[in-house]
Amino acid sequence: MTSDTPTTPDEPGPRPGPGSGADRGISRKTLLRAAVAAGAAVPLLATGGVALARDAARSGDGQRLTPTPYCDDGDDLTPDQMEGPYFKPNSPLRTNLVTPGTPGTPLTVSGYVFGRNCVPLSGVLLDFWQADDNGDYDMAGYTFRGHQFTGATGAFALKTIVPGLYPGRTRHIHVKVQAPGEPVLTTQLYFPGEPRNSTDMIFDPALLMNVRGAGGGKEGTFDFVLNVDGDTGPTDPPTDPPTDPPGGTWASGHAYTSGDRVTYGGRSYRCLQAHTAMTGWEPPNVPALWQSES
């Protein structure tokens, strides 16, 4: 691992631009994250913030409920930030950046990616990179670097550690987020309550994660909102039997529910159980998932 400790921030200062704090309105979520950063007590369930409301969801006996995507009209697009000098392309596909014996405080970061119309986005690329526990970036290899894709519900989850500090910056995690066929959002995620948040020249409270203790580690959550429209699905009922475009209507990567109907290879099929399609699971190959109707 190389030790490239800078003496200046990633960039000399903030760069105004589309989605920057200079021209964004202040939403409820931005104000709430600023309050969390300052250590204020916030009535989470009453606010409607995306990650805040989900984090506060508990059952009557105090057990955590299953996270549910939530989006409201108070959500801003996730602001962009500069890439910095330590990005490397071609990171490995993985959701766990930690290897046995890696020093540092364990951290899990999870959340959802939404379109501006509050529809969860599947197949979104998230490419993460960060400093190690000493504040160093690995420029020779791919330690603490990795990319993943959101699932059918728009969810992602990353296992890593709390990044170390280096001169000029507060704690942060870099990420590039790209919906299929759409522009790349390059941004950074921050930790609430960090003393250096107030002196970091590019810190943005709109990019604060919600972080809580979890045993000997921490759990962080953050929901991205991209400047794209999510697919709300067909507005017309399917034809019966379905119209068959070239190659059929079955598609790898699509989330099917029981009762859905597709065509493949000139034949019609009905879905028997919910699943996300993948190559090799074409209807003729998996009679447990698809029943032939022709």
UniProtKB/TrEMBL annotation:
The keyword Hydrolase applies. Gene3D superfamilies: Aromatic compound dioxygenase, Carbohydrate-binding module superfamily 5/12. The keyword Cell wall biogenesis/degradation does not apply. Residues 235-245 have a biased composition (Pro residues). One of its GO terms (cellular component) is extracellular region. The lineage of its organism: Bacteria, Bacillati, Actinomycetota, Actinomycetes, Kitasatosporales. Belongs to the intradiol ring-cleavage dioxygenase family. One of its GO terms (biological process) is carbohydrate metabolic process. PROSITE patterns: TAT. This is Dioxygenase. InterPro entries: CBM5/12, CBM_sf_5/12, Intradiol_dOase_C, Intradiol_dOase_core, Intradiol_RC_Dioxygenase, TAT_signal. Keywords: Dioxygenase, Hydrolase, Oxidoreductase. Residues 1-26, 56-75, 229-255 are annotated as: Disordered.
